[in-house]
Design goal:
- There is one protein chain.
- Helices cover 36% and strands 19% of the residues.
- By secondary structure, the protein is α/β, with parallel strands linked by helices.
- The longest helix has 23 residues.
- It starts with a helix and ends in a 9-residue tail after the last helix.
Length: 479
């Protein structure tokens, strides 16, 4: 998709919102938030930027972006985009500016081992925002009230963090799974659960691995009656079955789609090893193509989580010192030991199989988008794939999968905004909310530069990325 000329060469500053409203919103930020704020001026001009605008179109070189009262007022070549009198001018020569990342599978916890979880209500929001993630969908909650309260704290300026779309508790059937979850007892229980939490304010639900088709269908129906949507990490139900039931989204992609498992029984999560189920799968075959077409015809969005999928592929994930610095000591030691064991003792044949499956997962997502499917991105936190850091890592993985850097940024930003219905965000264009990420380096040439976030603008307020990340050093896994 190409940038419209009116966006590329906008030189007329739009009268967007009111200065008083922006000033009041900035003044609402409490000390725990203000300690990270570096820019709260009503009018800001980012000059000499490289701009990847979130549309998938051409990259702008030497552009100026003007922010006014929390909105984008103008964007275009610096030679033709005047800086308003009195604006705070920030020269970002040598930097790339992208829209705020929209994390579509960004939990506020990560697994602590076994079926238990560490809640990260303090550290996760700071890591997300510091990494450039300005909006998240939690994609399944272990403690929904905790997330609703956290959202309130962020919205009212009490705590720093991204704009949150809170999910209800996992919709799970009886069987293996996290012990914190309520196993649904049938159709009426599914409806009751959805109705209760929709009334409490959640806007999404995520169905999980052991749910039945009947319970999933009832949950989807009840959610849609209440204007709420449903996505899923499936196993007992296949992608095609979920599509027929009217689901809105699907998580993780190919490797959780049991349509391709031989001998799959209805409503039962198969025990077939992943390598056996997907190793011989023909990615150019009719079965895969038909699945993609069915998802697209039912207007189902897909959430890519390549950053967590990569964790199971020996030798694929580059070492990131920030992870070691951030996590608590016992988590750090366990992570380093697991990583060393995987890298030194990996069976070459098994490593090759895992790499092949990962490549197939990438191709499934590339072909889905190429065929017209709408795909966003998330990262599904784990000890080695921390909140925000995994969202950043997705950029390099999407490029590895075959997308251009501009297309990858589109998946990570505006596509997620579309799925959430947040059409005021996700694109660098006049009239949009000023959610922006300033990155030192050239993301079109080196996707690993995505780690070098300098400033994150959320609603037009600029936050110091490294200060946010430094504030949780040694605490992730504890708070």
């Amino acid at each position: 998709m190409k940038l419209q000329r009116s966006v590329l060469f906008a030189t007329v500053f739009l009268a967007l919102g009111s200065h008083n409203a922006f000033a009041q919103a900035a003044a609402m930020l409490k000390p725990d938030v203000m300690q990270f704020v570096t820019v709260d001026d009503a009018v800001v001009a980012l000059t000499h930027a490289r701009v990847i605008d979130g549309t998938g179109g051409p990259v702008g070189e030497d552009f100026t972006i003007v922010l006014r009262d929390g909105k984008i007022a103008a964007v275009g070549p610096s030679a033709h985009t005047p800086v308003p009198p009195g604006a705070k001018v920030i020269d970002v020569t040598g930097h790339t500016v992208i829209p705020g990342i929209v994390g579509m599978h960004d939990h506020m916890y990560f697994p602590a081992g076994g079926t238990e979880h560490n809640y990260l209500a303090f550290s996760a929001p700071r890591l997300y925002l510091g990494s450039g993630v300005t909006t998240v969908r939690t994609a399944g909650s272990i403690e929904p009230y905790r997330e609703l309260n956290l959202k309130h704290d962020i919205d009212t300026g009490v705590a720093p963090g991204p704009k949150m779309y809170v999910s209800g508790p996992y919709l799970q059937g009886p069987g293996p799974g996290p012990k914190e979850l309520h196993p649904l007892t049938g159709v009426e229980d599914a409806r009751r659960t959805v109705a209760y939490w929709a009334d409490e304010g959640v806007t999404w639900f995520k169905a999980y691995t052991q749910i039945s088709r009947a319970d999933l269908g009832a949950a989807i129906d009840e959610a849609h009656k209440r204007g709420v949507k449903v996505t899923a990490h499936l196993c007992s139900v296949t992608f095609r079955e979920a599509a027929a039931l009217g689901i809105d989204g699907l998580e993780h992609g190919l490797t959780v789609d049991t349509d391709f498992h031989p001998g799959k029984s209805p409503d039962v999560c198969p025990s077939t090893p992943r390598a056996e189920a997907y190793g011989a799968l023909d990615m150019n075959g009719d079965a895969v193509k038909q699945t993609i077409q069915e998802l697209i015809s039912h207007k189902i969005s897909l959430t890519s989580t390549l950053a967590v999928g990569e964790m199971g592929v020996p030798g694929h994930r580059p070492f990131d010192q920030r992870v070691v610095d951030a996590v608590v000591s016992d988590q750090r030691d366990a992570y380093l030991a697991r990583r060393a064991q995987m890298e030194s003792n990996a069976n070459p044949a098994n490593a090759a199989k895992m790499q092949d499956i990962f490549r197939k997962a990438m191709k499934f997502e590339f072909d889905f988008v190429k065929a017209g499917g709408l795909m966003g991105a998330g990262m599904d936190p784990s000890t080695g794939n921390l909140p925000g850091f995994g969202d950043q890592r997705n950029l390099a993985l999407f490029v590895e999968a075959g997308f251009t850097p501009a297309q990858a940024i589109q998946i990570m930003t505006s596509n997620g905004a579309k799925i959430l219905g947040a059409t005021d965000r996700g694109v660098i264009a006049p009239g949009k909310v000023a959610d922006l990420v300033v990155v030192k380096g050239d993301l079109t040439k080196n996707q690993d530069d995505m780690r070098n976030v300098v400033t994150v603008f959320k609603d037009g307020v600029g936050y110091d990325s490294w200060k946010l990340i430094d504030s949780v050093k040694g605490l992730v896994g504890l708070r």
